[in-house]
């Protein structure tokens, strides 16, 4: 009796995904050389592709979801930056007939729940991350989401993103104060969220330190203070800085709302802005304009709109021409900065 040869069924993308322990969309991104896949995951997927002799079909390579929903994920809603990002993202995505699901994940538990539950429920076609502080483990879990990922207001590995150069923001803000003649310059940072840190906070500090060092000004460790995120950070930061034996004559604040808070705290202590202490913030917040806060305008609306347009393009099968887009930030000089008071 002759042996009958039964042809082996063709390997498909689901087979590769199952063997690699990742989602079908991650396999799709890996074999097409698209961003959003860690080097280790990409190497594992491509190794299995070769082992199984898998050939990408045109239909599989054009895989897209069909929920018409986008998850907008952000660490908090009670900040001007986040609310402006959200409002602009919502408007941009809705104009393309995409619905928005909102996820506020400000602590470790909320982030863990999001990463565990969203992929299993297959609720969305894309994730729009708003400057979300993440641990290394959480970054790696993005590979398993199975959807397009765009980052707004920050950069994350090689995922498509729209951001500003926060190191340069810290440098420009500090150089402005040094150019006015200040040598004792403090910085009020914001505290990290639970289990992760804001890249923008870390990078602005790097820019501040680099500018101070370039002019031989240190800085002293005591000139950098950290407060919990919110307007109280300005009040607490001013309190700590004024307790120094030689307090600063200028303060670089992480954000405009913190600068407004710092201004209030200085006035309560009988100090004038800018005659006694100069203040500079970051954002381009309308509230800062009302109080005359010198700022680095990071054009938040432009960042949010560009990130939304990236999502729309990716869901239409179009890769962004500039996957990691940098938006220029600009110094806006107002009445809160001036030369330091004469030394007694």
UniProtKB/TrEMBL annotation:
Family annotation (InterPro entries): HTH_LacI, LacI/GalR-like_sensor, Lambda_DNA-bd_dom_sf, Peripla_BP_I
Pfam families in the cross-refs: LacI, Peripla_BP_3
HTH lacI-type domain location: 11-65
PROSITE patterns with a match to the protein in the record: HTH_LACI_1, HTH_LACI_2
Keyword terms of this UniProt record: DNA-binding, Transcription, Transcription regulation
Gene Ontology MF terms: DNA binding
The keyword Ubl conjugation appears for this protein: no
Gene3D superfamilies referenced in this protein's UniProt entry, alphabetically: 3.40.50.2300, lambda repressor-like DNA-binding domains
Name of the protein in question: LacI family DNA-binding transcriptional regulator
Organism per entry: Nocardioides taihuensis
